Structure formats: C-alpha cells, structure tokens
C-alpha cells in the first residue's frame, strides 16, 4: 500500500477561547481520491481546508501531507509543501486586468526563480501547457481576453487551469461553485473531476450542494459542529444521514453558502 496523500490526526482548531471550529478530526485521504466535504454553515469545512495548508494554523493534532507534518513545517519546507497544494477559490482570485493565459501562467510562479518570475519570463513549455489546458476547458476563444471580462463559470475554469499549472499533488477547493448558476456549476465540476482524474490528483472540495456532492465525489465527508459525522460513498449517504448532518439547519441543504469573503487570504 502506498503512503496516503494526507493524514489528519486528532486535529483541532479554536479561534480564541470559545470558538472550537474543529474538535478532533481523524481523516486519511489516499492519492487520487475526489473527496467532497458537506455540512451546514459554520460546521468547520473552510477551517478544515485551511488547516491542511496551514493558512490557518491548527491548534493541536497533526496534518501529515505527502509524508511531512505541515504544522511543524516552516520557511522553505512549508513553501515547498504549499507549492504541492493547488487552491481553487469561490471568488476565483484572478487578476482581472491581466489576460487569461497570464493568469494561468501565474500558477508556475512558485516554482520559478525570483528573477524569472519578476520579469515574467515563462518557458515555452509552460506557455504551451497553459494554452493546452485552456483549450481543454473550452476557453480557446478567451485566451487573450482580460480575465475580468469573463463570466463566473469561465473565470473558475481559469482558476482550475492556474491551480493545475502549479503541478500540484493535492487540490483544495472551498465552495468553487457557490457563486455560479447550476449550468456553469456543472461545467466547472465536470472539468475539475475530469482533469483531476486524468492526472491522478487528490482533490478535496467543500460544497453546499448535496446533490452535486453525490454526483461527483468518490467519497463524501459530512462535517457537523467541528466533527466528522459521515464518511462514505455517495450511495451510502442516505436521506436520514443528510438529515443528521444538517439537523436543525435543513433549510441549508442544497443552498449556496452565505459566506463572508475570506478569499483575500493570499499564499505567502
Ligand atoms: N477567522 C475566524 N475568526 C473567528 N472565528 C472564525 C473564523 N473563521 C471561522 N470562524 C468560526 O469557526 C466556525 C467554523 O467556521 P467555518 O468557516 O470553518 O465553517 P464552514 O463550514 O466553512 O461554514 P460556511 O458553510 O458558512 O462556509 C464558525 O463558528 C465560524 O464562525
Ligand atoms: Mg466555508
């Protein structure tokens, strides 16, 4: 058996003294899994995703990614670990005044020298890869448009290409379709699933839409009040289990997140 991609052990996160957002999460994720995390607002889904790359430092427990304890990693080691983790955001986080292909190429910045990156000197192979990715997600007509001129669904496809351009081992997506209409959401999820399957990437996606989770996930994790209350395949997610995950908050099943925008958090 190969080493798992990610192992969380007794992971906790508290904000201040009174908000216990994660209360002892144990979770092992293997290479190539497409994991969707569901749960009501405030359950701890975003906190869980952010503790994986330690954008939000965990309070106790461990996060082992690709064999290294993220909570102990510092400086260069932490940067190297984070370079292996691609991020996809609800609000896309593109540079809107810059064209689409440059936005995708930005995915390479973490692996370039300071001089190369400050001069924006990308290798021809990188440019070709960015182009090929954009064609793959159906954006060949948009390559030289400003990112800000695209629709939300198109912007998120650019976001996927940028994350893939980073050549990550793990992709984290926090509510990638929460700002999209159902048709655009389906397109984005389909490309995300296809590309990650083709490249055998591990993917963890937070979603509010239970039906979308069922459709795409190879494994669903149900989080409630900072704890995992369901871990199984789509077919095992019964209506009773959904009711349990969302109990008291049933009105949120399938509704988009009402989140405050924290996407402005930027990688160091
Ligand atoms: N930066 C923060 N400072 C203080 N408390 C926070 C912070 N971020 C999250 N919390 C709290 O931690 C708990 C979990 O929040 P989190 O954002 O992880 O939930 P979520 O499942 O992602 O919710 P949503 O579906 O609304 O996005 C909530 O009680 C929330 O208020
Ligand atoms: Mg959230």
UniProtKB/TrEMBL annotation:
The record, for InterPro entries, names: AAA+_ATPase (IPR003593), ABC_transporter-like_ATP-bd (IPR003439), ABC_transporter-like_CS (IPR017871), ABC_transpr_PhnC (IPR012693), MetN_ABC_transporter-like (IPR050086), P-loop_NTPase (IPR027417)
Q: Which GO terms describe its cellular component?
A: membrane
Q: Which UniProt keywords apply?
A: ATP-binding, Cell membrane, Membrane, Nucleotide-binding, Phosphonate transport, Translocase, Transport
Q: Which domain of life is it from?
A: Bacteria
Q: Which PROSITE patterns match?
A: ABC_TRANSPORTER_1 (PS00211), ABC_TRANSPORTER_2 (PS50893)
Domain ABC transporter intervals: 6-250
SUPFAM superfamilies according to UniProt:
P-loop containing nucleoside triphosphate hydrolases
GO MF annotation: an example: ABC-type phosphonate transporter activity
Gene3D superfamilies in the cross-refs: P-loop containing nucleotide triphosphate hydrolases
What PANTHER family does the record point to?
A: AMINO ACID IMPORT ATP-BINDING PROTEIN, PHOSPHONATES IMPORT ATP-BINDING PROTEIN PHNC
Please state what the protein is called: Phosphonates import ATP-binding protein PhnC
Gene for this protein? phnC
């Amino acid at each position: 058996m190969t080493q798992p991609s990610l192992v969380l052990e007794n992971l906790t996160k508290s904000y201040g003294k009174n908000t216990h957002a994660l209360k002892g999460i144990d979770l092992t994720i293997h290479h190539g899994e497409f994991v969707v995390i569901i749960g009501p607002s405030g359950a701890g889904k975003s906190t869980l995703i952010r503790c994986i790359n330690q954008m939000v430092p965990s309070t106790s427990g461990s996060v082992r990614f690709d064999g290294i304890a993220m909570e102990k990693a510092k400086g260069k080691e932490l940067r190297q670990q984070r370079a292996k983790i691609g991020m996809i955001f609800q609000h896309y986080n593109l540079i809107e005044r810059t064209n689409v292909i440059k936005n995708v190429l930005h995915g390479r910045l973490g692996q370039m020298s300071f001089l190369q990156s400050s001069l924006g000197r990308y290798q021809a192979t990188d440019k070709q890869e960015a182009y090929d990715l954009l064609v793959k997600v159906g954006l060949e007509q948009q390559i030289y448009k400003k990112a800000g001129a695209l629709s939300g669904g198109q912007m998120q496809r650019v976001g996927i290409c940028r994350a893939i351009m980073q050549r990550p081992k793990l992709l984290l997506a926090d509510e990638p379709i929460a700002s999209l209409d159902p048709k655009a959401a389906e397109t984005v999820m389909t490309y995300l699933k296809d590309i990650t399957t083709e490249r055998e990437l591990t993917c963890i996606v937070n979603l509010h839409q239970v039906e979308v989770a069922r459709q795409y996930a190879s494994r669903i994790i149900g989080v409630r009040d900072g704890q995992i209350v369901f871990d199984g395949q789509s077919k095992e997610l019964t209506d009773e289990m959904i009711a349990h995950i969302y109990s008291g908050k049933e009105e949120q099943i399938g509704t988009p997140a009402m989140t405050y925008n924290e996407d402005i958090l930027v990688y160091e």
